[in-house]
């Protein structure tokens, strides 16, 4: 990618302010170690690995920004990459909004990447960046589903939930991050869509509600989100395989 010729300056916003309730008790999820290194550092390096990304904004747990700043100071990033740390909010949507608001004026394209997806390959990051630079207002990496999905009528815990519908699996995609945006589009989405309840779990969904087009690029199995304890086992195995392969 010839970013020298590009009129774009691209930043990555990394929401890392969640607790990680589903992962179980312990430090905030983004600070939990993977192969001895905090998950957040893996995620920051994954964004910085793309030559197009010149700035990384980490959205830290609300009371943890100074600690996260120290952590980033202690871990080397490529020289071309600057970073900033801002405190996050109550929901992912709020945390992303706070990160986007901290972007300098000259940033024209924004990646939003979950700290909880530490192992996304650079090829996926580059594919998203490229589609944004080519003019797509919103780009999401996604994969076909393995499981069939049912829509249900939620009931109290323990009560059987009636199935309402079975969407055709071939038409569904599981979306990952980094999601890429034209900066103005992402900002408009956040200013138009007030965070309610849990907030949006996906920035592209907010852009869809604005009526702007969202396109898919191929996602990657290794871009999975570390959500539950078993995901940590998988992440450690992926890292171990990478380290073994690098040894050759
Ligand atoms: N996130 C955030 N601010 C919040 C909530 C979530 O920045 N208030 C971030 C998380 O740190 C994570 C990403 O959004 O990198 C995706 O969210 P998720 O996987 O749900 O992480 P958590 O909210 O931490 O996990 P859980 O829902 O199990 O508590
Ligand atoms: Mg969450």
UniProtKB/TrEMBL annotation:
Site (Transition state stabilizer): 22, 29
Annotated TM spans: none
Gene3D superfamilies, A to Z: Spore Coat Polysaccharide Biosynthesis Protein SpsA, Chain A
GO molecular function: 2-C-methyl-D-erythritol 4-phosphate cytidylyltransferase activity
Alphabetized InterPro entries for the sequence: IspD, IspD/TarI, IspD/TarI_cytidylyltransf_bact, ISPD_synthase_CS, Nucleotide-diphossugar_trans
Enzyme Commission designation: 2.7.7.60
SUPFAM superfamilies: Nucleotide-diphospho-sugar transferases
Site (Positions MEP for the nucleophilic attack): 169, 225
Catalytic activity as recorded in UniProt: 2-C-methyl-D-erythritol 4-phosphate + CTP + H(+) = 4-CDP-2-C-methyl-D-erythritol + diphosphate
Function text: Catalyzes the formation of 4-diphosphocytidyl-2-C-methyl-D-erythritol from CTP and 2-C-methyl-D-erythritol 4-phosphate (MEP).
Similarity-based family: Belongs to the IspD/TarI cytidylyltransferase family. IspD subfamily.
Name of protein: 2-C-methyl-D-erythritol 4-phosphate cytidylyltransferase
Native organism: Streptomyces corynorhini
Gene designation: ispD
């Amino acid at each position: 990618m010839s970013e020298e010729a590009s009129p774009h300056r691209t930043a990555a916003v990394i929401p890392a302010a969640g607790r990680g309730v589903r992962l179980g008790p312990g430090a905030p999820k983004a600070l939990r170690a993977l192969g001895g290194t905090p998950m957040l550092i893996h995620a920051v390096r994954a964004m910085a690995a793309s030559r197009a990304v010149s700035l990384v904004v980490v959205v830290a747990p609300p009371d943890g920004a100074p600690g996260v700043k120290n952590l980033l100071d202690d871990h080397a990033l490529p020289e071309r990459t600057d970073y900033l740390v801002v405190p996050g909010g109550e929901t992912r949507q709020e945390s992303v909004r706070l990160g986007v608001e901290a972007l300098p004026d000259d940033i024209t394209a924004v990646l939003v990447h979950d700290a909880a997806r530490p192992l996304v390959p650079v090829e996926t990051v580059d594919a998203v960046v490229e589609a944004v630079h080519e003019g797509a207002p919103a780009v999401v990496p996604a994969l076909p589903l393995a499981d069939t999905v049912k829509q249900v009528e939620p009931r109290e815990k323990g009560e059987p939930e009636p199935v309402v519908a079975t969407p055709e699996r071939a038409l569904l995609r599981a979306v990952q991050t980094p999601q890429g945006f034209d900066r103005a589009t992402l900002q408009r989405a956040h200013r138009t869509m007030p965070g309610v309840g849990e907030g949006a779990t996906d920035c592209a969904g907010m852009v869809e509600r604005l009526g702007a087009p969202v396109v898919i690029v191929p996602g990657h199995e290794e871009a999975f989100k570390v959500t539950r304890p078993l995901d940590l086992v998988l992440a450690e195995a992926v890292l171990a395989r990478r380290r073994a392969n690098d040894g050759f």
